[in-house]
Amino acid sequence: MPIMPLTPLDIEARSFGRQVWGFHRGQVASFLRACADALSQANLEKEDLQRSLLAVRGEVDDFRQREKTLIEALAATERLAEEKKAIAQAEAEQIIAEARRHAEQIISRTRSELTRIEQQILRLKVERETFENRLTGLLDEHRRLLELRRQEVGVAERLQPRSTMPPPVASPPGGESTP
After folding, report:
1. Of 138, 118, 139, 115, nearest to 126 (Cα)?
2. Where are the domains of the chain?
3. I want to staple 24 with a disulfide (CB 3.0 to 4.6 A). Which of 9, 17, 91, 165 is the partner?
4. For 108-162, how does the pLDDT look when each residue is reduced to its tens digit (9 = 90+)?
5. DSSP code for 133
6. pTM over 0.70
7. How many CB atoms lie within 10 A of CB 95?
8. Residues 3 and 38 sit within 8 Å (Cβ to Cβ)
9. Angle 148-151-152 (CA atoms, 0-180°, nearest 5)?
10. Is residue 13 a contact partner of residue 21, using CB atoms and an 8 Å limit?
11. Are the C-beta atoms of residues 142 and 150 closer than 8 Å to each other?
């Protein structure tokens, strides 16, 4: 027999017939059984609901704990990312500063080397000009001497009588001549 749902209004509105000695016992007993069955069913449902509620609360607590853990992990990750970013930024700035110092050193050395090379080029130009002037002077002196020598030879040839005889041959060392 299906259990009839029982509400508080049903209990309050229920009336029992009267007998000589009071209420009808059968009706009261039947109503009390229905009440007991309904309460028993309600208690079972209540226990099921309480178990379900506890399980759901456990799941909610578990989800809240997971959410809290995820939020903490996210915050820690964000902090770590910011720290890594700051470290990377500092390292980048340090690398850039070091590169600038190194570049300035290279530029300074290059400028010094350029100045040294320019001075050396200037010195070599002066040396070349001096050498060219000395060489030109030396060549001019040799030309003048050659011209004087030619003039002396020309004068000497004109002063010397012309003979048809060949000039004497010098004898080799040792005294004998060979025909």
Report:
1. 118
2. 8-156
3. 17
4. 999 999 999 999 999 999 999 999 999 999 999 999 999 999 998 888 788 876 6
5. H
6. no
7. 10
8. yes
9. 85
10. no
11. no
